[in-house]
Design brief:
With 514 residues, the protein is an alpha/beta fold. The chain folds into 2 domains: 197 residues, FAD/NAD(P)-binding domain (3-Layer(bba) Sandwich); 217 residues, Polyamine Oxidase, Chain A, domain 2. Helices cover 36% and strands 16% of the residues. A 7-stranded mixed sheet has the order 6-5-15-16-17-14-18, sandwiched between helices. A 5-stranded parallel sheet has the order 7-2-1-11-20, covered by helices on one side. β1, α2 and β2 form a beta-alpha-beta unit. α2 runs parallel beside α17. It is globular, with a radius of gyration of 24 Å. The two termini are 25 Å apart.
């Protein structure tokens, strides 16, 4: 595609150096754009991709996995190209496995009375929950959702066993035949599964996730994999393909001045917090939705169009935090890949706690086991979402460590277990993210995602189109909340500009593959 000289000389400012911003800049530079700048508020690239360390162990404070590592996933393809993955992740068998977003990990189950539960006793509850999740995702295409939220739907179905598939009815009948104590334990398992889904979706409660929009999310085939050397290796490789000095670090933006008036040929002006004003033909905004929610009123002049503002308000953006815990020796089985903690007083299908300050630790559904042990030693990663996770961030690290130790001692019945090191993420109180990632809240629809990605001006003036473009995981119509969604959105907006300046004239930007 030939580009007109005017396009190659146009001034493009990218706000944010997360993977969507890096992807947009890289694509534009590769196509010959000569005046691309990236403004990053922090002192590092990567955004919510953030690799850290626990002693001498590499850990992921931010993005953890490549979800769906297969040929349709550009993160997987780039990581393979850069040589960042283990051989096991590259096999055809691994790429063909369709896990539908839930890896088939070997579980270990513990109860709050200090008992180890048998996986076969928890299976009927886990199976029913998985079926109900699948059914929840179908309402997007078939309509007629009976409840407003996924949480409401699952609770109603578990309690009444109505509108279930034949397979679910058989499971429900098995439940009815069990002793009351076993059935009560299985209800508590469902509560744990709801907490798991809060972490998967990045929400405080599944009551906030819209049932009609739940199925908008699409998974890719492939068994989720990690980076032996850290996820930031992907960022470093992408950054190495950009010219030196293209990124200005510690340069937060206070306001973007654009125009929705026909005939106004003034450039877009990016006003930085230090008072610097940068003129541009196009600005690509890649800040997280959480930041947009908090600063939408002051970040744009004139304000965003109402339909865009309403979609920013309607879409969900929550917190999912990690608590890494290292031990001298494992207290879990060697083949265990995930540990679930089941509270025996949660028969009423809860995914949030009544007293957050006193009981925040009950929201932590359990731990994933960092493998292989030869690389990580004996390290677990605890997962906690919602307002309980936000409260956890405010506590001294020593208090978090004590709470984790007490929790594990209670569930294992072993009073001597003591963590060697603890490290937690704090995404809600990070001023540039204000949370973790996007989910479709109650009342959301596909139109809201379309509104989020729509450039400014959206209507009216055509004399200066594409003044402000929007990228980031929250702007992808079906891969929101993922790294590959963020990457694809950056490429999408770069392609929008490339198409605008092509010698054949503007073309329709292709929709992402579903």
């Amino acid at each position: 595609m030939a580009l007109r000289r005017k396009g190659l000389d146009s001034q493009v400012v990218v706000i944010g150096c997360g993977i969507s911003g890096v992807a947009a800049a890289q694509r534009l530079v590769k196509h010959g754009f000569r005046n691309v700048r990236v403004l990053e508020a922090t002192g590092r690239s990567g955004g919510r991709i953030k690799t850290g360390s626990l002693g001498d162990k590499i850990i992921e404070i931010g993005a953890n996995w490549i979800h769906g590592p297969s040929e349709d996933n550009p993160v997987f393809c780039l990581s393979r190209q850069y040589g960042l993955l283990e051989p096991a992740a590259l096999t055809a068998e691994n790429q063909a496995m369709d896990i539908k977003g839930h890896p088939p990990w070997v579980p270990g189950w513990f109860s709050s009375s200090g008992k180890k539960l048998r996986a076969e006793d928890t299976y009927p509850a886990v199976s029913m929950f998985a079926e109900l999740l699948d059914e929840s995702a179908e309402f997007h295409s078939r309509g007629g959702e009976p409840r407003a939220s996924v949480g409401d739907f699952i609770r109603a179905e578990v309690r009444t066993n109505c509108k279930l598939s034949e397979a679910l009815k058989r499971v429900a009948e098995e439940w009815k035949d069990e002793e009351a104590s076993t059935r009560a334990m299985r209800l508590c398992v469902v509560s744990n599964m709801l907490k798991v889904e809060c972490c998967v979706n990045g929400t405080h409660t599944m009551d906030q996730v819209g049932l009609g929009a739940f199925g908008l999310y699409r998974t890719l085939p492939g068994l989720d994999c990690t980076f032996p050397g850290g996820y930031e290796g992907l960022i470093q490789n992408l950054m190495s393909e950009l010219p030196q000095g293209l990124v200005a670090y510690r340069q937060p933006v206070s306001c973007i001045h654009w125009s929705d008036t026909e005939g106004d040929n003034e450039p877009v002006v990016v006003e930085c917090e230090d008072g610097q004003k940068i003129t541009a033909d196009h600005v690509v905004v890649t800040v997280p939705l959480g930041y947009l929610k908090k600063h939408r009123a002051k970040l744009f002049r004139p304000p965003l169009p109402l339909h865009k503002l309403h979609s920013i308000q309607r879409m969900g953006f929550g917190t999912n935090n990690k608590i890494f815990v290292e031990f001298d020796s494992p207290w879990w089985d060697m083949d265990c890949e995930v540990i679930y903690l089941v509270w025996e007083d949660e028969e009423n299908l809860v995914d949030q706690v009544a007293d957050i300050k006193r009981s925040w630790i009950k929201k932590l559904f359990g731990f994933t086991v960092l493998k292989p042990a030869e690389r990580y030693g004996h390290v677990l990663c605890g997962w906690i979402a919602g307002r309980e996770a936000e409260h956890m961030e405010t506590l001294p690290e020593q208090e978090v460590a004590q709470s984790i130790a007490q929790l594990i001692r209670r569930f294992t019945g072993n009073p001597t277990i003591t963590p060697r090191k603890v490290l937690r993420s704090q995404w809600f109180h990070d001023p540039w993210t204000c949370g973790s990632y996007t989910y479709p809240a109650r009342g959301c629809s596909a139109q809201d995602l379309n509104n989020l990605m729509e450039p400014l001006p959206s209507k009216g003036t055509q004399s200066r189109p594409l003044q402000v473009l929007f990228a980031g995981e929250a702007t992808h119509p079906c891969y929101y909340s993922t790294v590959h969604g963020a990457l694809l959105s950056g490429w999408r907006e770069a392609d929008r500009l490339i198409s605008h300046y092509s010698s054949s004239g503007p073309a329709e930007i292709p929709r992402p593959k579903l």
